[in-house]
Design a protein that fits this description.
With about 300 residues, the protein is mostly beta strands. It has three domains: about 160 residues, Immunoglobulin-like (Sandwich), CATH 2.60.40; about 80 residues, Immunoglobulin-like (Sandwich), CATH 2.60.40; about 30 residues. It has two helices and 19 strands.
Length: about 300
């Protein structure tokens, strides 16, 4: 398991809450498939009467299923502490919902309905009994200011993989024609050394449909490179534009260009550093002059 979400984070978004029993369960359109078929299984949260604001856990699966895609673009999670990733035969995740979450609300129905945390697209590879399981060390924390762990019910899913005709589909259909959301990459200098630290570019965006798949960075004179944030710039002079491209799982792209030097954080531009150094130098000069005058006055009195 990844490190527990601390109650300090929960306290920052505290509000009144109701105590009940939340439920994590798995849902799909069908539970029968044949070898080669794919199925999308969603991890759902039914908050019941609770108001929650943090979740952490994992989902494991049988060996006759392989992961084709992990989707979380339309998740109820607003801030990921650990974006869903595959680790061995499990998918791990952790995130918070500032302000709390009690369910999906709409004018089309009464009350609150369960919300989606993430979904996993599996492909069946072998005949037999398959399964997807909500691991029992998953936790849901209440929106009570101290991060109280909610009473939790979990529900797993069995999948029958057969040799004959199944009702699954063969290809992943994202149905997504919308690129990731616009974002603003920022170039910063590593904080451990203000004057000589190295330049990094920081970036992040969301895609509410199929989810962000990966990023690529291109500096002048180089090819596009698959990158993660923060990314260490090869051109440490940062005197040329940098291009950052976000790809979603459907293949749509969002391109953002960071102009040379203009993408720097305000405190890390050459002009700003020059001004700060000038100020420091001026202060030191003033102090030196005053000390010299005091010494001069002291000698004249004697």
């Amino acid at each position: 398991m990844i490190p527990k979400i601390t109650s300090i984070i929960i306290f920052l978004f505290a509000a009144p809450f109701f105590v009940g029993a939340a439920e994590l369960y798995l849902d799909a359109d069908h539970s029968s498939m044949r070898v080669g078929d794919i199925i999308e299984v969603s991890l759902m949260l039914d908050a019941e009467e609770d108001v929650v604001n943090a979740l952490e856990g994992s989902v494991s699966f049988s060996q006759n299923l392989i992961v084709r895609q992990i989707r979380y673009g339309n998740s109820l999670i607003q801030l990921w502490m650990q974006k869903p990733i595959q680790k061995g035969d499990s998918i791990v995740y952790a995130g918070i919902v500032p302000g709390g979450y009690s369910g999906e609300i709409s004018s089309h129905w009464k009350g609150n309905r369960p919300g989606k945390i993430l979904s996993i697209v599996f492909e069946a590879t072998k005949i037999g009994d398959g399964w997807v399981q909500v691991n029992r060390d998953s936790i849901v924390l209440l929106h009570d200011g101290i991060g109280t762990e909610a009473s939790l019910i979990v529900r797993d899913m069995n999948i029958e993989v057969t040799e004959g005709e199944g009702i699954g589909q063969k290809e992943v259909d994202w149905g997504d024609k919308v690129p990731p959301e616009s974002f603003t990459p920022i170039v910063i200098r590593k904080p451990d050394n203000f004057l000589t630290g190295k330049y990094y570019i920081v970036f992040d965006t969301q895609d509410k449909n199929s989810g962000v798949h990966h990023y690529e960075v291109k500096e002048r004179g180089t090819d596009y490179i698959v990158a993660e944030s923060p990314y260490l710039l090869k051109n440490q002079r940062f005197d040329q534009d940098v291009t950052v491209v976000a790809f979603d799982n459907a293949g749509n792209v969002r391109i953002e260009i960071v102009p040379a030097h203009l993408g720097l954080a305000w405190y890390d531009t050459i002009l700003t550093r020059g001004i700060l150094l000038s100020i420091v130098f001026s202060i030191l000069l003033i102090i030196s002059v005053r000390m010299y005058k005091k010494r001069g006055c002291g000698h004249s009195k004697t």
